[in-house]
Amino acid sequence: MQPSKTTVTGLFSTPHQYQIPIFQRGYVWRLEKQVGPLWTDIYERAMAVIEQQTLIATGAITSPKTIQKHFLGSIVMTPVPHSFGSVPAFEVIDGQQRSTTLQLLLLAFRQASRGLEGSLIPQMLDALIRNPGPYQRPEDHYKVWPTQAGQDEIKRLSDSGLCVQDIYKAYPARDGRKKLERPLMVQTYLYLYHACLAFMRGIDLSDAITPTVDTTFGDSLTAAIRRNNLVTPLQEHLALDGSRAQALYMALDGHVQIMTLTLETEDDPQVIFETLNARGEPLLASDLVRNFVFLEAARLGKDVQQLYQRYWSPFDLVLTAGQGASANLYWREKERQGRLTYPRIDLFFYNYTILRSQEIILASHVFQSFKAWWQKQPQDLEAELARVVESSEHFRELVSPQGTDYLAEFARLIKSLDVGTITPVYLALRERLDKNGSELRQALGDLASYLTRRAVCGLTTKGYNRFFMRVLQEIVGAPIEPHMALRRVLLAASAPSEVWPDDIMFTEQWCRRPVYKELRPAKTCGVLRALEYAARGVMQGSNHVPPQTSLTVEHVIPQSWQKLPGYQIPDMTEEQLQLREVIVHGFGNLTLLTQPLNSSVSNGSFEDSIDEDGNQILGKRSKLGQSALLMNTYFHQTGISTWDEAAVAARARALCRAAILVWPRPFIGAALPAKVASALSEQLA
Q1: Are 381 and 413 in contact (CB under 8 A)?
Q2: Cβ of 437: how many Cβ atoms within 10 Å?
Q3: Is residue 20 exposed (0-12), middle (13-18) or buried (19+ Cβ within 10 Å)?
Q4: Which of 195, 339, 484, 513 is the most buried (most CB within 10 A)?
Q5: Which residues, in sequence order, are bridge partners of residue 78?
Q6: pLDDT tens digits, residue range 494-519?
Q7: Sign of the CA dihedral 315, 321, 324, 327?
Q8: pLDDT over 90 for what percent of the chain?
Q9: Model confidence over 186-231: pLDDT tens digits?
Q10: Distance between CA atoms of 205 and 185, rounded to whole angstroms?
Q11: Burial tier of 577 (Cβ tally within 10 Å: 0-12, 13-18, 19+)
Q12: C-alpha separations of 6 from 73, 146, 253 in Å
């Protein structure tokens, strides 16, 4: 490894290109966390230059003292073999965020300094942002060549004919009332452009805008870049000072230091990539996995670019309307599992590593566990990448369900029950069983029954990670009929922490437990919604059930029943009071409504009534009858005139019979929608 010290201008002063390997992550630096602090470091060195110049000009000092350099960090790279007519290039192994940001700073500085009349700075900066050529490939002219997600942006921002208005137009922050997100690279460019203008006007971005508020110029600038299509320069009425622009250039030229480390043949890029700790955005576990896999591909002499485009690029890129590419934000969004949240792509690789290794791993050790599994035995690299892609699609359908088929509804139930520990089991079943076959339906039905029954019965989820590891091992170890292996292990579980509740236990808890309080509203809503879906079937006008976010759990006897005359019992005993408090929150007293109807039902009486003017006031029974949900057809029955403990108990039994059809033990076949619908609206004897 050959170390060398340089400056910002020195890094880009020779005709070289810094290439970001196609398999590395895209640009991820954010204004508050990395770009703003980087600008502060550079601002302080530029101010040190101005202070020294002032002292010399005023005679306070006779000879300049050495200005302390600021170390910005390191960039690790390896030479790329080049052919005739191509630019000498380096692949950036570590430091791609820093090198890209510094090039964006020079581009922004050039644009900002064009407002200085007669200044040489724009011309001086031209040499730092373009390799002169000639070259056979147009992209060789760019000093930094990012991954595909940033290539469109770097081309546009490097355009010598660019004006900032073109950037605002190409990358708006909103479309009417709809908020858009500018690419992070564009946000950085705009921030640094306005920061350079502000510096030339004598503005410190860390200063408060007014003495009476805490908002700084930097805060205001960041907010404007994110919210406004056009960003007004800070203190635009102030003139640009050419001497301050010279001080900024001098700081970049001599007082901001970077360490470059050029790898030699015997150096292992993967080891260096894993162990370097830079100041930038922490690497995701998936970033380490990606780098490991594709460096392995390079060692094996594979076509890395082809492999990346075919198998990995969908994790990083999404095509834009103009057939360009931008960062795929879906996989970077956070997803909750248990009490913690993780980027979806890391959560996927956490579960994928469990699936492949069949070992319990820590979420903080995903890469180490993945690497250990990979190196246990030789892997067919392309076949494994194909399996990653297939499993990622299965993972996505589980965590982001779409449509109304049985897979989507299973996923919605699992999300409402919050049992992400079954994800490796789901991935194993999906890659072994046909989506359209009865075997997968049986397997997911068994899982849904097992998890729903345990939730309704209030049984613990502690130990699920160990139990479902055994389940996973049984499935993987059964090359034939993995769905039957799943059923066997679920039925064989007998400990309280693992047992699959039978009909007796399930019925007792369903009819007696105050689930709204103990199971909590979200899980209760998910269970009731699954019943509604099962009752519809393909013969209904639509098997679409509103998403859980559009539904609320309605208490037929209101939670505030003690304050409402129509629901009180004269001379209520303590025993009656305790029973009422339980049944109010039990399944028999709960139903689902869309939110607008829920607010209109409110705390009214159960039966219709007549007001003093002779007008009919619809009660809960009539309003529930207006619901489009099948479970509320139960309230159409003429035999229901009052809603009391006996009526609640009768409906709890009816719902329970429907639930046993949907979640039997064991699951034998799909519950017939007609039977479920009949049980939901069962007529009184």
Answers
A1: no
A2: 11
A3: buried
A4: 195
A5: 91
A6: 998 999 999 999 999 999 999 999 99
A7: negative
A8: 53
A9: 999 999 999 999 999 999 999 888 877 778 999 999 999 999 999 9
A10: 20
A11: exposed
A12: 11, 21, 9
Bridge partners of residue 327, in order along the sequence: 317
Q: Give the predicted TM-score (pTM) of the model.
A: 0.69
d(CA 587, CA 506): 12
- How large is the greatest C-alpha to C-alpha distance in the chain, in angstroms? 107
Amino acid found at 164: V
List the beta bridge partners of residue 257: 7, 71
Q: Is the dihedral of CA 438, 440, 441, 446 positive or negative?
A: positive
- β-strand partners of 515: none
**CB within 8 Å of 464: residues ≥ 6 apart:** 419, 421, 422
Please identify which residue in the block is written with the tokens 């858009």: 180
Residue 249 amino acid letter: Y
Amino acid identity of residue 185, one-letter, is M
Q: Got the DSSP string for 254-281?
A: HTEEEEEEE--TT--HHHHHHH---SSS
d(CA 330, CA 345): 9
**Mean pLDDT calculated for residue range 469-487:** 94
CB-based burial, 638-653: b 16+ in 10 Å, e otherwise? eebeebebebbbbbbb
3-state DSSP call for residue 174? strand
Do 639 and 684 form a contact (C-beta atoms < 8 A)? yes
The answer to whether 554 and 598 have CB atoms below 8 angstroms apart is yes
Categorise residue 558: left if φ over 0, alpha if ψ from -120 to 50, beta otherwise: beta
pLDDT at 402: 92
pLDDT of residue 103: 96
- The residue among 28, 30, 31 whose CA lies nearest residue 219 is 31
* Distance, C-alpha 508 to centroid of its chain: 40
Q: Is 118 left (phi over 0), alpha (psi -120 to 50) or beta?
A: left
Mean pLDDT in the chain?
87
Given a contact cutoff of 8 angstroms between Cβ atoms, the answer to whether 390 and 382 are in contact is no
CA gap 315, 202 in Å, rounded? 43
The single residue listed with the structure tokens 């699936």 is 355
Q: At what angle do helices 148-158 and 184-200 cross, to 10 degrees?
A: 30
Rounded to 5°, the CA angle 91-94-97 comes to: 95
Instruction: For residue 82, give every residue at least 6 positions away whose Cβ sits within 8 Å of its Cβ, in sequence order, or none.
Output: 88, 89
**Contact predicate 105/42, CB 8 Å:** yes
Q: Is residue 277 predicted with pLDDT exceeding 50?
A: no
| Residue 373 structure tokens | 């599994």
Mean pLDDT (whole number) for 442-463: 95
Quote the distance between the C-alpha of residue 270 and its chain's center.
27
Structure-token match 């007082």, residue found:
255
Q: Are 70 and 257 in contact (CB under 8 A)?
A: yes
CA separation for the pair 3, 1 (Å, rounded): 6
Q: Which of 477, 479, 475, 478 is nearest to 490 (CA)?
A: 475
pLDDT beyond 70 at 267: no
Give residue for tokens 């820093």: 98
